[in-house]
Amino acid sequence: EGGYPEIVKENKLFEHYYQELKIVPEGEWDQFMEALREPLPATLRITGYKSHAKEILHCLKNKYFKELEDLEVDGQKVEVPQPLSWYPEELAWHTNLSRKILRKSPQLEKFHQFLVSETESGNISRQEAVSMIPPLLLNAHPHHKILDMCAAPGSKTTQLIEMLHADMSVPFPEGFVIANDVDNKRCYLLVHQAKRLSSPCIMVVNHDASSIPRLKIDVDGRKEILFYDRILCDVPCSGDGTMRKNIDVWKKWTTLNSLQLHGLQLRIATRGAEQLVEGGRMVYSTCSLNPIEDEAVIASLLEKSEGALELADVSSELPGLKWMPGIAHWKVMTKDGQWFSEWEEVPHSRHTQIRPTMFPPKDPEKLQAMHLERCLRILPHHQNTGGFFVAVLVKKSSMPWNKRPPKIQGEPVEPREPVRSSPAHPAEGAAVDPAAPESKAASGMDDTDATERSESAENSSSRKDGVCGPPPSKKMKLFGFKEDPFVFIPEDDPLFPPIQKFYALDPSFPKMNLLTRTTEGKKRQLYMVSKELRNVLVNNSERMKVINTGIKVWCRNNSGEEFDCAFRLAQEGIYTLYPFINSRIITVSIEDVKILLTQENPFFRKLSSETYSQAKDLAKGSIVLKYEPDPAKPDTLQCPIVLCGWRGKASIRTFVPKNERLHYLRMMGLEGLAEKKKEGTVVAQESADSSGLPEDEVSAEHGAEQATSAGASEDASADT
């Protein structure tokens, strides 16, 4: 179309390699290759927390999919999207509609619009089917501490956050997700994805996964090492399972990519295994079909772990999913097609490129005990997906080089060099010479002792203030942008009592977990994290490069001093705060919600009398608008909605970002109204809430004066 030559979907070396390795069952080769040449079907996953997800599913099935039923586009009948058979509760769907058709045909315009808008507001995510598998197999629960080692762009991370919030009525689950990526720019992509779920239990950090630092937490006044209950290790890979969507892989494929990545993959997996708690579960996954990146890494990790790790049998965990068992025999091929079946055959000149860990274990008993057949390889032609590999590991005991129990407390502080030996060593030491994982470099615990000593001497003062600044650059190279510090609000901060009083916050409100991003000057935004994440932040500030954490719960009003409370509620954090707020709540009907979301500044008289009677005695300022579904009317919206609003002199307005507002209207079957509003008016709150610059947010009262709206333009200026 663009005048570029068509990419030829052929690669003889690729075919030769995988036919030789026999990863595809007898007689299925042609189907396998055919599937790889077909474009990937679009898949989408309904994200978000339980009650909202159910509403979106209801809306998709009964409205949008129904409209696709008898459609023809370019003479081709549109297949109605189908749920993925193995994904729980019908929350993932696939369709044969290619992106091109979706964008081009006018009949699908509405459906496309829906997809785009709902993706923006974080209610669905366009995620490849196979990439949904690792989080499901992690089997995470709300109390689990989870590490996502190579997390960007973040679709798997969002799945994990949803698992933490399985029970919507608990605003602060005990677990958390620490999402890491080595690439600073991609970390911001991760922040964007995670923000759509507004969880106080996620932290994005920027480290090399193969040497991600060991963190400390405070357990009953003792410093202890943080071990994770669940670790997702979705490593960088050659990506030959993604040929259906990344067409240039056809041209570029060679075995060299795998040979170069194997060492890094093994180091990352090793580092993960070290930080896993005994009894914990780690999922290792790649979007590559190549045993060098798949079984070879697992076999080598199992061998190195000397029984500390085992492959779990997950064959019954995702009924409906088709997969091939892992293989136990494979060979290594150079980029020019030369094969080696064991390490001894490899000439010296090739030793830097080909490593002993790339070959299957020799000892047949050892090999059998590993149960490599418990790995899952997903082939594209079995369920019309991408290619993928997953292995689930369970930790039975400490890794052999970490056997010595860590000495942390009560040891004499000798004047020893306070070295911060980087925790990269154990992994590298072990990977470079698989024969000697016992070496000093791999002892893994020495760094703890040293770090402890140098720390206690160093930063005791700054930590008392609850300031978690960016790590000092002499200890850690800072990549990318220098982040603002994370400062917890002190116990006696005069900022808090007026807020507490104005919103009648419950005594159980965890004010210790409020933080700002500035050490001096006026605090503009207040953020909130769970107490477990606070523990991690306060105890690791100089060890860890945090890109983002916490959700915004309050923003300062520009002219806030004249109201009883200088801070207004932020929609982003309202679902977390709501359970603690005991005043300034107005219960609204579904009719009120419609008016509030489609009109800029509706006067009290436009709202129901119940709403008016609740609003009339409230002082001016920030309010909560709460809609409770009525089970007796099943055709109305069946999920609770909490909106932030503002009570003006004679009117009420909502402070809800545009895409979230459209989402609620769509759930009520009113997207037509949303469209009208979009064309007809300039909406102050949109520019305010979606600009991403909270400082510039229009103070509600002034915004009201300038904003005119379809409903209240005749005397909007009188209404403040």
TrEMBL record:
<keyword id="KW-0819">tRNA processing</keyword>
<dbReference type="InterPro" id="IPR057286">
    <property type="entry name" value="PUA_NSUN2"/>
</dbReference>
<protein>
    <recommendedName>
        <fullName>tRNA (cytosine(34)-C(5))-methyltransferase</fullName>
        <ecNumber>2.1.1.203</ecNumber>
    </recommendedName>
</protein>
<feature type="active site" description="Nucleophile">
    <location>
        <position position="287"/>
    </location>
</feature>
<feature type="region of interest" description="Disordered">
    <location>
        <begin position="678"/>
        <end position="720"/>
    </location>
</feature>
<dbReference type="Pfam" id="PF25376">
    <property type="entry name" value="Pre-PUA_NSUN2"/>
</dbReference>
<feature type="binding site">
    <location>
        <position position="234"/>
    </location>
    <ligand>
        <name>S-adenosyl-L-methionine</name>
    </ligand>
</feature>
<dbReference type="InterPro" id="IPR049560">
    <property type="entry name" value="MeTrfase_RsmB-F_NOP2_cat"/>
</dbReference>
<keyword id="KW-0489">Methyltransferase</keyword>
<dbReference type="GO" id="GO:0030488">
    <property type="term" value="P:tRNA methylation"/>
</dbReference>
<keyword id="KW-0539">Nucleus</keyword>
<dbReference type="InterPro" id="IPR029063">
    <property type="entry name" value="SAM-dependent_MTases_sf"/>
</dbReference>
<dbReference type="InterPro" id="IPR001678">
    <property type="entry name" value="MeTrfase_RsmB-F_NOP2_dom"/>
</dbReference>
<dbReference type="InterPro" id="IPR023267">
    <property type="entry name" value="RCMT"/>
</dbReference>
<dbReference type="GO" id="GO:0000049">
    <property type="term" value="F:tRNA binding"/>
</dbReference>
<dbReference type="GO" id="GO:0005737">
    <property type="term" value="C:cytoplasm"/>
</dbReference>
<feature type="binding site">
    <location>
        <begin position="150"/>
        <end position="156"/>
    </location>
    <ligand>
        <name>S-adenosyl-L-methionine</name>
    </ligand>
</feature>
<keyword id="KW-0694">RNA-binding</keyword>
<dbReference type="Pfam" id="PF01189">
    <property type="entry name" value="Methyltr_RsmB-F"/>
</dbReference>
<feature type="binding site">
    <location>
        <position position="208"/>
    </location>
    <ligand>
        <name>S-adenosyl-L-methionine</name>
    </ligand>
</feature>
<feature type="binding site">
    <location>
        <position position="181"/>
    </location>
    <ligand>
        <name>S-adenosyl-L-methionine</name>
    </ligand>
</feature>
<dbReference type="GO" id="GO:0016428">
    <property type="term" value="F:tRNA (cytidine-5-)-methyltransferase activity"/>
</dbReference>
<keyword id="KW-0820">tRNA-binding</keyword>
<dbReference type="Pfam" id="PF25378">
    <property type="entry name" value="PUA_NSUN2"/>
</dbReference>
<dbReference type="GO" id="GO:0005634">
    <property type="term" value="C:nucleus"/>
</dbReference>
<feature type="region of interest" description="Disordered">
    <location>
        <begin position="400"/>
        <end position="471"/>
    </location>
</feature>
<feature type="compositionally biased region" description="Basic and acidic residues">
    <location>
        <begin position="450"/>
        <end position="466"/>
    </location>
</feature>
<comment type="similarity">
    <text>Belongs to the class I-like SAM-binding methyltransferase superfamily. RsmB/NOP family.</text>
</comment>
<keyword id="KW-0808">Transferase</keyword>
<dbReference type="InterPro" id="IPR023270">
    <property type="entry name" value="RCMT_NCL1"/>
</dbReference>
<feature type="domain" description="SAM-dependent MTase RsmB/NOP-type">
    <location>
        <begin position="32"/>
        <end position="396"/>
    </location>
</feature>
<keyword id="KW-0007">Acetylation</keyword>
<dbReference type="GO" id="GO:0005576">
    <property type="term" value="C:extracellular region"/>
</dbReference>
<keyword id="KW-0949">S-adenosyl-L-methionine</keyword>
<dbReference type="InterPro" id="IPR057285">
    <property type="entry name" value="Pre-PUA_NSUN2"/>
</dbReference>
